[in-house]
């Protein structure tokens, strides 16, 4: 049963489902929060159509069903500044009453980690509800003549154009990857989100692009099916030992380290590779997160976490998650807190290398 059918449940059935979920976790404090008749805004600091927007719109109706009182949950897009505009607004204006949450991505995290001058938010103070691991896929225009990653040597010396949100956004990962591969990529900055980058690709304005898993599955697969786009590789995923392996959502695509070895004939190494790994780990295993403001009462935080946990146990969620977000287990509550703390603690030497590289290559000033 899809979530659309699930949302057609009667109000009584939805409340019963929530009551069962809260009974399962066995707490009284979560029941003290009641959002009946309320309107909750989930801020997505990007334009419509990108990976974070797709992910946020997937989660919003489940919070409506599983939060106590079944509030109306709406997505509010606030694009700009590589997501710093929406994050700054959340920091400055969101009340700690549970009626405003924010869904972030690595493009919100990276400017914070790199001490971007546009950042006016303190992520470490926010209350994390859930973390969504994700991946991403790099693809090129079929006019370039490639069929797969096995043909990547043909890109040597070819002028490529990439639509970017900004050098300190999550686009740092592809920009570092292009640097490692020694591709001649002209980064066109100023995109309002990855969705805008994809649209530029569709218009023929750029010929290399990447999308996070949800956006690739939903929006790029049709381009592949009609022969306009050729997927090359995924960023990969982390195994239990911290190694980058193939992404479970794209098992037929090589991971970035595999693609590098296919093109260069050796495994990646050196300072650029170490910096890439550090920011990949910071940006993708906990790539998308939902937060509440600082000082949000514990009963409200608990209600959100319980709602997220209940959603992940719902049969329709499991089915639709695979189709929409890929094969990634959602991380809720204290485990999300732990992975969030890891994500905002990039090694200082990696941060310093990336800052110098960004200044030298793109004139980014810190």
Task: Report on this structure.
The N terminus is likely disordered. The protein has a six-stranded mixed β-sheet, with helices on both faces. The protein has 15 helices and 13 strands. The chain has 366 residues and is an alpha/beta fold. The chain is 44% helix and 17% strand. The radius of gyration is 20 Å and the shape is globular.
Keywords:
three-stranded antiparallel β-sheet, 366 residues, 15 helices, 13 strands, 44% helix
Tally of strands? 13
Category from helices, strands and their pairing? alpha/beta
Query: Rounded to an integer, what's the Rg over CA atoms?
Result: 20 Å
Cα(first) to Cα(last) distance is: 49 Å
Looking at the structure, what is the overall shape?
Answer: globular
Write the element-wise H/E pattern from the N-terminal end onward: HHHEHEHEHEEEHEHEHEEEHHEHHEHH
Provide the residue-averaged pLDDT. Answer: 89
Largest sheet: 6 strands, mixed
| Percent helix | 40-55%
Order of strands, main sheet, comes to: 2-1-3-12-4-13
Low-confidence stretches: 1-30
- The oligomerization state is single chain
Share in β-strands: 15-25%
**Number of contiguous helices:** 15
């Amino acid at each position: 049963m899809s979530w659309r059918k699930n949302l057609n449940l009667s109000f009584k059935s939805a409340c019963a489902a929530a009551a069962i979920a809260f009974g399962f976790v066995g707490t009284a404090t979560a029941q003290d929060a009641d959002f009946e008749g309320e309107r909750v805004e989930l801020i997505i600091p990007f334009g419509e159509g990108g990976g974070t927007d797709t992910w946020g719109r997937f989660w919003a109706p489940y919070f409506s069903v599983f939060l106590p009182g079944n509030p109306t949950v709406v997505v509010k897009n606030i694009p700009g500044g590589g997501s710093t505009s929406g994050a700054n607004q959340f920091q400055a204006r969101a009340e700690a009453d549970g009626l405003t949450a924010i869904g972030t991505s690595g493009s919100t995290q990276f400017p914070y980690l790199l001490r971007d001058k546009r950042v006016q938010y303190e992520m470490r103070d926010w209350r994390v509800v859930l973390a969504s691991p994700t991946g991403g896929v790099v693809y090129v225009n079929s006019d370039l003549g490639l069929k797969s990653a096995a043909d990547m040597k043909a890109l040597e010396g070819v002028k490529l154009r990439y639509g970017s949100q900004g050098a300190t956004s999550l686009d740092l990962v592809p920009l570092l990857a292009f640097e490692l591969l020694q591709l001649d990529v002209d980064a066109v900055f100023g995109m309002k989100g990855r969705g805008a980058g994809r649209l530029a690709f569709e218009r023929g304005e750029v010929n290399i692009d990447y999308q996070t898993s949800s956006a690739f599955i939903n929006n790029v697969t049709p381009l592949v099916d009609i022969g306009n786009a050729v997927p090359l590789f995924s960023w990969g995923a982390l195994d239990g030992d911290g190694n980058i392996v193939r992404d479970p959502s794209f098992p037929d695509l090589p991971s970035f380290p595999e693609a590098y070895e296919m093109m260069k004939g050796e495994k990646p190494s050196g300072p650029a590779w170490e910096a890439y790994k550090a920011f990949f780990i910071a940006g993708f295993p906990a790539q998308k997160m939902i937060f509440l403001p600082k000082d949000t009462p514990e009963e409200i935080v608990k209600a959100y976490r319980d709602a997220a946990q209940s959603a992940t146990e719902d049969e329709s969620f499991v089915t639709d998650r695979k189709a929409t977000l890929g094969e990634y287990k959602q991380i809720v509550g204290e485990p999300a807190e732990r992975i969030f703390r890891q994500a905002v603690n990039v090694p200082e030497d990696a941060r310093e290398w990336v800052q110098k590289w960004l200044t030298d290559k793109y004139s980014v000033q810190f």
